[in-house]
Structure formats: structure tokens, C-alpha cells
Amino acid sequence: MGSACRTASRLPDNDFAGSFSIAIGGWTCCCEIDDEELRQSLSDAWSPYRAAPTSDGVRLVVSDAGSGAYRVFAENREGPIDLGNLLASPEGARFRRVEAQPLPAFADSLFSNEPVIESSGASLRVFTRERMAHYAMLVIIWLSMAEGGLICLHSAVCAVDEHAIVLAGPSGSGKSTLAWALDRLGAACCTDEWLFLRREGGPLIPLPRSISLRPEGARLLGVQPEPSRLYESRPGDVKIATERKGRLRSFDGPANVYFLSGFAASPRITAASPAESLRRLLGILGTGDDDMNARIDTALALTERFRCWLLEVGDPSETARTLIRRGDAR
To answer: Are 281 and 299 within 8 A, CB to CB?
Structure first.
């Protein structure tokens, strides 16, 4: 396959239909993907950061491995990147080693005990077609951290004037519902999933995507779900795909991080201690490596950069109004 974005000694030529390039936070990646549907899905997901072809950065190749499987391979100028390190990192904690295989194989604990990924040298073999787009997203995000010097926070981000409201919490804590309520009141939602920034600082870089709501959140917001938009993000976790998409912008100004800490009759906000902020940030932080000391150092730097709060969420609209009134709270 020819490509516009080669690494090592190969120089870029003209782009072709089987590839697209990403540039985010100073990191670049060329994605060469045989499968047209998969390529379009990933290209759409990264559309705010699509870029011109380049020989810099990382080259990611996803090709047909036969029998409904995909081979995933990545390289930089120095040579192949060991994607098995993703499975061994905290970002790959959901993948569990399955012993009785000729090659190291892993089950996705969020879905089943059946192997879905096989690790062979620097490449991965993915057995499931239906979740390939999701796994490819995980690979790209991990590469942006491991190779590109970015870090990632699993959080929602909304904009009020020139400052950011960052909503952090585990799945089901109400991030997307509250982000929708903020957006409806004029605090533009930028993402309800992924926030990037460079380890050494710089702007906050959200990855916009369409907001997905759980049915209970939709009911609180008065959103009537269409049956055709219901899907399972994992077994038993029903969500509603909405048409409300995050808006593209970056933030150089101040940011408040609100750790969602349960629900209450009315919203309650208290300052998070440095130790609590560190603990909570470590739970949502991706760095692309398994060096715990380095992860702690990174999280400590974020506690100095962000103002951190504990938020008990009340009615979503009332909570959103409270956050907007607080503005750039100190």
C-alpha cells in the first residue's frame, strides 16, 4: 500500500484514499487503514485535528488479517513501536491475559472472558470487528501519550467565557448529563470524554464528540430518546446517541476541576484537599506508561495548575447554573 505519510527513511508523497493524518498538541500520526468503514469512523472521530501528510511522528497501520481479524502495527523513525506495552500499561488494565493460547492473548473484562486481542511482537491482532473502531481509538490515544508527550484526562469540558469547567468522575457519575445541562445554558460543551494537554503544560485540548446520555440522565433533562439512537456501550450499559456535538476550542486560561462525588438534593461544592485532588486525578489520568512515580509527579503538577473541587450533583440544570455563577472560582 502506498502512503502519504511514511516514517523512517521514506518520504511523504501524495495523500491517498486509504490514509489520513492527525496533528494534536504538537504530535502527528498517519493512519493507514484498509477497511473503508473503519477508516471513515476514525477519520470522523479525529476530524477536528485532521492534518496535512507528514513524515514526522508515528505511522499506524490497520490491515486485514483474515477471518474477520485486523492487524494493528505502529512505527516511528526509530522503528516498530511495541503495542503490547499498551496492554501492560494502566491504560490497558481492562485487558486480562488469557493463558491457554499459543501467543499472548487478552480478554476485554468489560465485555467477556473470550480473547479479543493477540499480542505478537510489536503488532496486535484484533479478533472482533464490531469493537475495532473503539480499540483503534484506544491505540491512537495511547500512542499520543507514549510517543507524543501528551497526557489525557477522562473528563467532560465546558467553556464559560475564557475559562474551562472540567467535570471528572467515573462512568455513571453524571459527567455527560451535567455537560449537556451546561451547554444548554450557554456554557459550550467541548467534550464529554477526552481532554488532552502536554506534560510540560500548555493549552487544554478537548477532543469533541457527540454527547451520549444514559436514559436516566435524559429523563432529568427532559430529553426524549428515539429508540433508533439507543445502543449498549458495554453489556447492560444503555446509552442514547445524541446529535449534540462538542465544540472545538482550546484553553490557555484558568480551569476549575470538579470531581463528581455523588448526588444530593441540591448541589454542594467544597474545596478538595491537595491529597484528595491527587488521588482523584490519578484515577482519571492517562500518561501512556506504567511508571507510578512519573504518574504521581504528573498528577502533582496538575494539582498546582488546576483549582480542584468536590461536587455533589443536584438537579442537573440547577447544578449547571451554580457552576456558571461561580465562574472562575478561586
So the answer is: yes
What's residue 101's pLDDT? 66
**Confidence band (pLDDT; 50, 70, 90) for 70?**
very high
Q: Which of 148, 168, 197 is the last residue of a domain?
A: 148
Whether residue 206 is found in the same domain as residue 306? yes
- In the structure grid, which three cell numbers stand for residue 230, read together? 439507543
Full residue range of the structural domain in which residue 84 is found:
19-148
26: left (phi over 0), alpha (psi -120 to 50) or beta: left
Answer yes or no: is pLDDT of 251 > 90. no
> How much is the pTM?
0.89
Cell of 132: 475495532
Domain shared by 70 and 128, yes or no: yes
User: Phi and psi dihedrals of 248, rounded to 5?
Assistant: -85, 125
- 185-221 b/e (C-beta count within 10 Å ≥ 16 → b): eebebbbbbbbbbebeeeebbbbbbebbbbeebbebb
> pLDDT, tens digit, for every residue of 168-196?
988 888 899 999 999 999 998 999 899 99
pLDDT tens per residue across span 112-157: 888 999 998 789 999 999 899 999 999 999 999 999 999 999 999 9
DSSP 251: B
Domain boundary among 125, 148, 171: 148
Spell out the residues 6+ positions from residue 102 whose beta carbon is closer than 8 angstroms to its own.
Answer: none
**CB neighbours of 179 closer than 8 A, spacing ≥ 6?**
156, 157, 158, 167, 189, 192, 211
Q: What is the number of other CB atoms lying within 10 angstroms of the CB of residue 141?
A: 21
* 319 and 213 share one domain: yes
The structural domain count of the chain equals 2
